[in-house]
Amino acid sequence: MDAISFIVHDEPALRGESNYIARIDLAPFEFEGQVEQVWLRRIGDDGEAVLCCIPFRAYGLALRDTVRLSAESAVIELVNPSGSRALRALIAELDAGEIRVVKAEIDARVSRAGLLFEWSGDRHVAIDVPLGADAEAIMDYFDGEEAADRLYWEWSDVASFRV
Question: Per its UniProt entry, which superkingdom is the organism in (predicted)?
Answer without folding.
Answer: Bacteria
